[in-house]
Task: structure prediction
Amino acid sequence: MPSETSIFQPPVNISRCSYICNLEEYKKIYLESINEPEKFWSKIAEQFHWETSYNHKSFLSYNFDISKGPIHIKWMEGASTNLCYNLLDRNVKNGHADKIAFYWEGNHPDDYSKGLTYRKLLEEVCRFANVLKTHGIEKGDRVSIYMPMILELPIAMLACARIGAVHSIVFAGFSSDALAERMVDCKAKMLLTADGVWRGEKPLFLKALCDDALYKAEILGHKVNKCIVVSHFKRVSECRQDFQSQNIPWNEDRDFWWHDEMEDKESACYPEWMAAEDPLFMLYTSGSTGKPKGVLHTTAGYLLYAATTFKYVFDYKPNDVFWCTADIGWITGHTYVVYGPLSNGATSVMFEGTPFYPDNDRYWQIIDKYHVNQFYTAPTAIRALMKFGEEPVKKHSLNTLRVLGSVGEPINPEAWMWYYRNIGKEKCSIVDTFWQTETGGHVITPLPGATPLKPGSATLPFFGVEPILLDDGGNEIQGEGEGFLVFSRPWPGIMRTIFNNHPRFESTYFSKFPGYYCTGDGARRDTDGYFWITGRIDDMLNVSGHLMSTAEVEAVLTEHSKVSEAAVVSRPHPIKGESLYCFISPNAGESFDRKMIDDLKKLVRERIGPFAQPDVIQCAPNLPKTRSGKIMRRILRKVATNDRDIGDTSTLADENIVEVLFANRPENI
Ligand code: PRX
Result:
């Protein structure tokens, strides 16, 4: 097994023709980006259309030090542009009208598949922008989107961007409660969804769930007046022999079919010119206090950063085919299915299904079908696919691949090696990209032709990014060492605020260490200056690449009428990376039984979504607390992993609790 000392040089065939061919070149450009950020990013800005040009003097202004005033980040103030115009009209004008923007691949190989050119995408986007306008959507309005991976999703996003509306996408695996909470928080004027979708063999009826969410939002005090629905389930099911028509719940006053609305709309729509710092979209991410945070990204900086990271990190060349498997409902899908590729005039694959259906070689089959050159996925998917061995992989050539990406959580060296050997055939570069919803794009990442790789390390910072490690006291660690990963200056893609809650933005990210943006992750720097992300240092955990907070799950568990207290910790999981291990104190006189466990799991699925379902729920008649009443999660983590080496327990109010907790561990876990 490779260790930290294993170094994999970039394959020669890749270095030879990549944008950045070696480490020296990377270092030179990196230093330029750090020493003269205005010059560096304004050069990049030249390729885009600016309706009002930018001024070099006011290219960047920011304050990261809360003691000196409000936190703010502004790039390219004074300039105006439109994201949709840059992604579509500009590419069409530059001769790419007939180039494929997306190859859409359905859940089942026998479902229809489709290629959408830049010209056609622009027309569809304009028509839908006109639909939005007809329904009264204006610049600055929020539009919630709860859709599967269908082409109408990027069309809807870009239509919002075209007229200056702010999209707020909620991953279509979230529950109706979670969707309702998010629609209320952003005061959505409209909801966009689909009738349903097949996920493997399972039909999911999204419209019914949306009806539930719209009802719950109204109870919570916010009425969403319009809902536009894509008839997707029907069109896909009609290809299948087993089609049965479904009754889609409908409210005549509120609901509209997408295809009806599009029918008479013009395929041209003048773009709304947006100020550089006008909002582009918001996307909710888990917060350590439980309530999700609406991370807000703005126009010009996000465009520059999505475009630049996409180009260099995937070394995307004009005739390549790129494929990011992430759902658009997460930031990876926003930046690397939609904004990054389209801003480069790229062709990419958009896939509706799962890696395991109808067989475990579905990903490899799609790579061959579309001659994919860059493939970007998550460690949890790699680990799940490794289980099936090499046979499913060997059925396919995979010889078009050049760059393999990984995102969402640390990739363990074993999975890295499997990816490198079996998928990349030792001829591809692996880019382990570290970033967050908040960072907008990759911040620590290798570049395919330049960076020697160490399995498990995200390696070095991207252009314009200056990572710093701090110790507990907030002192900068120089050279080798481990500490809190922070940034002392902004890059163009960093978030600007939490929607409607700037104080929470300041306290979450800038109060722990004044002067720094705090990622919430720990990291180690080795002798070569390489970064190794060690995981969250707050009460967050990463289940299959989905970030959630222990507080969020605890709040749901304690809603149960028979639960008095709950504490949730993370337990390592071979495929998911981490899993939820929950300790429950039942109310006095209540018994802890199978039914309670099932009810609690169901509650978490309902409140958050199926991906948040706990793996283990164990009874804890009492939780281990300090004398001041703080739960000692360190001890709970030891119980979860059955590790008797629990260290010092002298600060516990009652040390006997520890034995009871070990004795109560469920069998066979
Ligand atoms: O803990 C880090 C982990 O995922 C967190 C961000 O999650 P989210 O905002 O949902 O965005 C995920 C996709 C960008 C980070 O704080 N993380 C993400 N990528 C990596 C990672 N941890 C280690 N290595 C990575 N490559």
Residues 118-134 form the longest helix (17 residues). The chain is about 30% helix and 20% strand. Residues 285, 331-332, 407-410, 432-437, 458, 519-521, 533, 536, 542, 547 surround adenosine-5'-monophosphate-propyl ester (CB under 6 Å). The chain has three domains: 12-78+436-536, 82-354, 543-663.
